[in-house]
Amino acid sequence: MRVFVTGGTGVVGSTVVAELLGNGHTAVVLARSDASAQAVEAAGAEPLRGALGELDVLRTGAAQAEGVIHLAFGNDFSSPGAVAKSVAEETAAITALGEELVGSDRPFVVVSGTPWVPGRASTEADPASTDGPVGGRGRTVTAALGLASRGVRASAVRLPRTVHNEGTGGFAGMLTTIARQSGVSGYPGDGTQRWPAVHARDAAVLFRHALEKAEAGTAWQAVADEGDRVLDIATVIGRRLGLPVKPVPAETYGPLGAIFSADQPASSAHTRQALGWEPKHPSLLEDLENIQP
C-alpha cells in the first residue's frame, strides 16, 4: 500500500515509517525542511515537501495515496496561546485530509491520546477527552472518526502520555529535559499519579495494524504500561542524571501542569484481543535506564 504519512520524522513517526517499509508498504512522508527530506530519503521513503499548515500539499499527498496516517503536531507547549495554535493547525490538517478521502473507502489513521477517566483506567470504549488545553484535539479526532459514515475507513490510535525510545520521548522525556535544566528531577503533586506508556516500536506496529485492518470508526489504545507512578519515573531519571528527586509546583510545567498532575492510567485489553497487538519492547522504567548522565 502507498501510504502518506504526516509527522514521519519524529520519535513515533520514524518508527511508523520503518514499520511500514519493513512490511511491504511504501511511504510518502511530509517533509518541511531539507534536513527532514534527507532523513526521509535515508529511511527509504519518498519525501513530499511542505508543512502541516499547507493544506493543498496535504490534499495532494492524500489524493495520491492508498492510505493516510496522520501523526504531526506542533508540540509547542510554551504558552496557552501556542498550544491553541498547534491544535487549530492540526484541526485544519485533519479536516483537509479527511475531506480528500471522502467516498474512497481508503484507510485514514489519526493519532490521538488516551482519555483521562477519574477513578479507573480508560478503555477503548471511553470517548476522547475534550477538556483542558488540548481538548480540541479530542473533538477533531471524534469528527474524523465520523467520516466512517462518508466512505472513509477512519480509525484512531490513542497514544499514552509517554511514547519512548532509548530513554527519550513523551512526558517522561520532558521530565528529563527539565531535570537537566533545573538540576532537580522533579514531579508534580505527591508523585502517586500514574502515567501510561508504550515503546515507539510497539506503537508503530499498532499504527500498521490499524491501517491494514481496523474497521471504520474505531479507536485503539497503544498502551504497554497501564500506569507507572510519576515518582518512580522521576526516581529513575534522578538516579541516571545524579540529581536529587523532589516534588515541584505544577506551574513548573506551564500549560501542561494540570495534565502532569492527573492520575491517568489506561488499558489496551480490547486492542490486544481484537487486533492481536502485543507489546514486545522494553517498558518505560527499563528504557529510562538508557538516559545518559
Automatic annotation (TrEMBL):
CDD domains: SDR_a7. Gene3D superfamilies: NAD(P)-binding Rossmann-like Domain. One of its GO terms (molecular function) is aldehyde dehydrogenase (NAD+) activity. One of its GO terms (cellular component) is cytoplasm. SUPFAM superfamilies: NAD(P)-binding Rossmann-fold domains. Residues 270-293 are annotated as: Disordered. Residues 3-217 form the NAD-dependent epimerase/dehydratase domain. It holds the Pfam family Epimerase. InterPro entries: Epimerase_deHydtase, NAD(P)-bd_dom_sf, NAD(P)-dependent_oxidoreduct. This is Nucleoside-diphosphate-sugar epimerase.
